[in-house]
Design brief:
UDP N-Acetylglucosamine Acyltransferase, domain 1, eleven-stranded parallel sheet, alpha/beta, Udp-n-acetylmuramoylalanyl-d-glutamate--2,6- Diaminopimelate Ligase, Chain: A, domain 1
C-alpha cells in the first residue's frame, strides 16, 4: 500500500459509524486492517470463527471486531457485533481506496452520435459506446470498455476495465463489473437442419438489477427470445458462465467457475459453491445452498443444502470404489431377483 494515502479512524468513530458497542479505549486509532495474528497496533482485525479464539490472546491489533461471548477477559479495544464478519465488511469498506475517473469523455474514446452520456459520467481511454446506448449519472467506464448498441449503464455503475456489453444489455444502478467480463454475447443456440448445424438468432437481451457485482472474465449470454435476468444484489464471482434465458433471484451469490445452462431459474438468497454445474430448464427454489463441485441435474423445490460427487480419498481407495460403482446395477438386479 506504499504511495497511497491511508484514512485514519478512532475506535469511537468506527463504533458510531457502524452502530456497534465499544469496549475499551475510544481514542485508539487505526489506519488499516489485518488478521488477528498479523495486525499491528494501528490496524483493525476481526474474530468471526470461534475456532480462532485462541489467537486473540496474542493479537497486537489495535481494535478487534468480535462477539461479546468471544472476548471475555480480553483487555484490548473491541467493537462488539452479533455478526463480526458482516461488521468487518462494513468497516473495511471505509478503508478501501477507490479509483476515481474525472467526469467527461477521454479524447481517445469513440462515442456514437446517437448515444447519450450524462455530464457526470466518466468515460475512460479507448472506450467505445455504440448507437442508442445510454450512460447514466456518475457511471464510470474504465480503460478499454466497449458498450455495444442499445445498452444502458445505470447511475453510479462502474465497469472497471475491458468490460464488453455486446448488445441490448441493461445494467441497473451501482452495478460493479470487473475486468474482462462479457455481457450480452450470443447464447449457444443451434438447431440441426439437413445434417448440419444452423445458428438460432439470439434476439433477447440481458437485464441486471441494482447493486449487482459481476466477477472478472464472467460471461452472461443474452436471451434467445426473452431476456436473461439477474435481479437486484446478485453477486457473481470470476469465470462464471450464465447461459441464455437464465434467471437468478435477488441476493443470490455464486462462486467461481460455476456453469449454468440455458433457461434455468435460480431463486432468491441461494448460495452456489465453486465449480458447480447446473443443467438447463430446471428450477431451484429460494434459499438453497449447492456445495462446491456439485452437479445439479433436476429441479430443487425445497430449501436446504445439496451436494453430489465423492469426497477426497487416496487414489487406491478411489479406484477400488469406482470399480464397485460400475458393479452396482448388476448387484441391484441380482438382489431384486431373489
Amino acid at each position: 500500500m506504499s504511495g497511497e494515502r491511508r484514512l485514519s479512524f478512532r475506535a469511537g468513530e468506527l463504533a458510531e459509524r457502524l452502530g456497534l458497542a465499544l469496549r475499551g479505549d475510544p481514542s485508539t486509532r487505526v489506519t488499516w486492517v489485518g488478521t488477528l495474528t498479523g495486525a499491528g497496533p494501528d490496524q483493525l482485525a476481526f474474530l468471526a470463527n470461534p475456532r480462532y479464539r485462541a489467537q486473540l490472546a496474542g493479537s497486537r491489533a489495535g481494535v478487534v471486531i468480535a462477539r461479546e461471548a468471544d472476548v471475555d477477559g480480553y483487555p484490548g479495544t473491541v467493537l462488539l457485533a452479533s455478526d463480526p464478519y458482516a461488521a468487518y465488511a462494513r468497516a473495511a469498506s471505509l478503508f478501501q481506496p477507490t479509483a476515481t475517473l474525472q467526469p467527461g469523455i477521454h479524447p481517445t474514446a469513440v462515442v456514437d452520435v446517437s448515444a447519450q452520456v450524462h455530464a457526470d459520467a466518466a468515460v475512460g481511454p479507448l472506450c467505445v459506446i455504440g448507437a442508442g446506448s445510454v450512460i447514466g449519472a456518475g457511471a464510470a467506464l474504465g480503460p478499454g470498455c466497449i458498450v455495444g448498441e442499445h445498452c444502458t449503464v445505470g447511475a453510479g455503475t462502474r465497469l472497471v476495465a475491458r468490460v464488453t456489453l455486446v448488445a441490448r444489455v441493461r445494467l441497473g444502478e451501482r452495478v460493479l463489473v470487473h475486468p474482462g467480463a462479457v455481457i450480452g454475447a450470443d447464447g449457444f443456440g443451434i438447431a440441426m437442419d439437413a445434417d448440419m448445424w444452423r445458428k438460432v438468432p439470439q434476439l433477447g437481451g440481458v437485464i441486471i438489477g441494482d447493486d449487482c457485482e459481476i466477477g472478472a472474465n464472467t460471461t452472461i449470454d443474452r436471451g434467445a427470445i426473452d431476456d436473461t435476468v439477474l435481479e437486484e444484489d446478485v453477486r457473481l464471482d470470476n469465470q462464471i458462465q450464465v447461459a441464455h434465458n437464465v434467471r437468478i433471484g435477488a441476493h443470490t451469490a455464486i462462486a467461481g467457475c460455476v456453469a449454468i445452462a440455458g433457461s434455468t431459474r435460480i431463486g432468491r438468497y441461494c448460495l452456489i459453491g465453486g465449480a458447480a454445474g447446473i443443467v438447463g430448464h430446471i428450477e431451484i427454489c429460494d434459499r438453497v445452498t449447492v456445495t462446491a463441485m456439485t452437479l445439479v441435474t433436476h429441479s430443487i423445490r425445497e430449501p436446504g443444502e445439496y451436494s453430489s460427487g465423492t469426497p477426497l480419498m487416496d487414489s487406491r481407495s478411489w479406484r477400488r470404489n469406482a470399480a464397485r460403482f460400475r458393479q452396482l446395477d448388476a448387484h441391484f438386479r441380482r438382489n431384486r431377483e431373489r
